[in-house]
Amino acid sequence: MNYKLLGRSGLKVSELCLGTMGFGTEAGWGADKATSFAIMDAFANAGGNFIDTANIYKLGTSEKIIGEYVAHHDRDYFVVATKYTLKDNITNPNASGNNRKNMMRSVEESLKRLKTDFIDVLYLHIWDDITPIDEVLRGLDDLIKQGKVNYAAISDTPAWVVAKGNTLAELMAWSQFIALQVEYSLLARTPERELIPMAKHFGMTVTPWAPLGGGALTGKYLRGENGRVKPESNRRNERSTRITQAVMAIADELGVSPGNVALKWTMQQGFSSIPVVGATKVDQLIDNMKTIDVCLTSEHISKLDEVSKIELGFPGDFFREEAVRTNTFGGFYENVEKR
User: How far apart are CA 225 and CA 213, in angstroms?
Assistant: First the structure.
């Protein structure tokens, strides 16, 4: 496995990130400890070092399993990313949200479950639309100065909030967000409107969650298999079916799995992207890791882009109008280098 730099940092992480939301059997699904250990063994043996979890995953069991595993291996080999925001108890109104009090409490609890002295990457999990972004950044910077966190990142937050935060962090000499985690796949391309252009501008790595659309892009539902995605979901509607059929056709042409094609598409979009690949079975992970050897041609990318295209709305589509480009670039649009 090759390694990428995470955002504008010198942190080297594997080109696939292991998602561990399914580590634990709470809620009637997921991988037990032995299976989770086997999945992490397979990932590490292939050169994987980037592991993604959160305080709330399986009511904390995910962090506990990772902590026990890492405690018996080389802690410094692994880049462990976790998240704060979502409730892990309902004892008081400050046991959730983006506020500093919850941040500090949540991190201390995560450190205990992970059996470690530090978290490599700490994500704000979901924007609460209440806490000032400067409060968040100052808290994260304090944790970094204390050595409890190495890098700050953010997930599921509006682009303008992240942009304001990173600009403020630069002005105040605080640690900036180096990664952005959002839902992104052939079935979910709306981050292309604002979030991904913002991430490119700030040199942030995008770590897409649900890059396989909850398994829909593997073709499992078209094959009549069962899963956790409801039939009425947008991941299983007419549009999703068309996209999945295109993915399966390219997979057949290349002799790889549909999941490999869907994952590789997220990795070949012209910006730094490390998909979070979840697994509750070893064979799922092994198939996902085959993605690193797949290469989609420009024709493949064009076909997938076309079948999954969305309206960018204003101003994205406006900027693409020929008259606008002619007026803005004086007829030289095709001859000007693009960032």
Answer: 15
